Amino acid sequence: MSKPAERNLIVGLDIGTSRVKAVLGELLDDEQISIVGVGTHPARGMDKGGVNDLNLVVKSVQSAVNEMELMADCQVSSVFMSISGRHVKCQNESGMVPINKQEVTQEDVDNVVHAA
């Protein structure tokens, strides 16, 4: 049995005050994106751009992502997100930890984030 070809997928996720939207695109060889799945769900737990009930927001995101995955016939394990708003603040930090093996593991990433 041959192994299925790996797909080059990218996810867009928009968590708005009224709706959560998820879109799954496949990056094609000609640098185009083919939309293979979409999902929407009413946003719950949001008010005026802020989170007032995190559990409800999580359920709304899960519903939109589940709908998108069902349409695309695949499961998503991670997304890249951006966050904006006047209430968002950030700061630059740095951290260093030793790496035991040549390959960086998720545990290594977690350790350096904790060290920062």
Describe this structure in words.
With 116 residues, the chain is of the alpha+beta class. It has two helices and five strands, in the order βββββαα. It has a domain of 73 residues: ATPase, nucleotide binding domain (Nucleotidyltransferase, domain 5), CATH 3.30.420. The strands form two sheets. The chain has a three-stranded antiparallel β-sheet. A two-stranded antiparallel sheet has the order 4-5. It is globular and about 45 Å long. 11% of the residues are buried. The mean pLDDT is 87.
Overview in brief:
This protein is α+β, with helices and mostly antiparallel strands and 116 residues long. The chain has helices spanning 54-72, 106-115; strands at 9-15, 19-27, 33-42, 46-47, 50-51.
Order of strands in the sheet with most strands: 1-2-3
- Which value, in Å, is the CA radius of gyration? 18 Å
Q: What's the total number of strands?
A: 5
Instruction: Provide the CATH topology of the domain at 9-81.
Output: Nucleotidyltransferase, domain 5
Helix content: 25-40%
Spatial gap, N to C terminus: 46 Å
User: CATH class of the domain at 9-81, please?
Assistant: Alpha Beta
Main sheet: strands, sense, barrel: 3 strands, antiparallel
